[in-house]
């Protein structure tokens, strides 16, 4: 059953919907009497002193913050398209908006320095705990305003240019070949992956990110990897830092007033990230000094940044942000994609046939041109992100008073766009309950499908769209192409439920059966 009821909007085109939304908003602004006050927005009612924070506490709380996905669905079902969660001690109100036209309006109206929800624990770490290191070079995660804009301007050209990304097809393929070899070594007597296979996916993700952001192979895929190795320490630190964000930010923020045990471990893990990034970037700088060829097109991402910035700190901090956000995000996305592939044999066969056309010889190396021909592969990934969005929502902190769905919303409120819900609403997506990769393909034959352009945005939108998205896409595409071209994946156990840790992904043992296709 769909999470939402069907709407009469289904028969209207996205363009017509956007025009109507714009006309409606303009009309409301002209007629202030028609705009309802912020206090009337529906949502859970806060109580004196504890506000709504009590609802998020363990044992006595009403909501389980470890599963924000269910919470975002519950809010929509109970309150409708706009829901206010106010009275959160130590943080601004959260405003959940389940209307793709209003989401589009907010994105379209934002200025050159849009504010994402602030991640106060990361802000405190960068701006106070390690202020002497970061200074005004805060990076792109947990940083806002002019410092964010200045840093992003320095790094966005090399990290987003296609010719830079294309340089990494071969290195990422090399990492992935090693990973698939590890998969073959890990198979049990039933040809299945071990119960902790998600940890192996984390190792592959870190090896890819390390190759991109640090110019080094970290050795994550070594079969004799020590439990005390640098690679496993990085993965552990990333998981801890990201998976405790919700607890640090939504429950009572004691850590702001004194160093709680949770905060102390958070700082320790973040310090380890900084130490590792500095070590490997310094080594990359020494290698760059010895290079005789300095043509920009021959330089890696790290080398391009070091060659153009006198202070290596820019490269330190970019690597830190890419590793911190990338490991868990890409790993959980791959867990979800592989699970959907293994449980959807018809779609997997379509992908396999496409890969046979593009790669008649399965041992042929991948190239940017061959990846571009893998249309169904890319459509499959987009459909997984729509229906099982790894990132359950995006958001913005309003920089000025705004009218949303007929309510006057003051600046400073943090607006949340639950893409996991809007991506399955029938007024924005035709046949939302069906898994249809074809909806993302330009088909000249067969049925046509509509999807509102702002209903499913796994990487966000605009100036603050995910900076590492091109590399994330590349890593996912290379893994799927190499794996499915040579092996069939199956999942022969009880279906898994999806759950939120930091990302939204299948919860349980990913014991995939891996069979050689021999063609």
How many β-strand stretches? 10
Question: N-to-C terminal Cα separation, in Å?
Answer: 40 Å
The main β sheet shows up as: 4 strands, mixed
Shape: globular
- Indicate the structural class: alpha+beta
Order the strands across the largest sheet as they lie in space: 1-2-6-3
H-E string: HHEEHHHHHHHHHHHHHHHEEEEHHEEEE
- The count of helical stretches stands at 19
Determine Rg (CA atoms, Å): 23 Å
> What's the rounded overall pLDDT mean?
87
What is the beta-strand fraction?
5-15%
As residue ranges, the low-confidence spans are 1-30
What level of helicity do the residues show? 40-55%
Looking at this protein, list some descriptive labels:
single chain; 519 residues; alpha+beta; two-stranded antiparallel sheet; 19 helices
Give a verbal description of the structure.
The N terminus is likely disordered. The chain is of the alpha+beta class and 519 residues long. The strands form 4 sheets. A 4-stranded mixed sheet has the order 1-2-6-3. The protein has a two-stranded antiparallel sheet with strand order 4-5. Strands 7-10 form a two-stranded antiparallel ribbon. α8 crosses α19, α10 packs across α12 and α12 crosses α14. It has 19 helices and 10 strands.
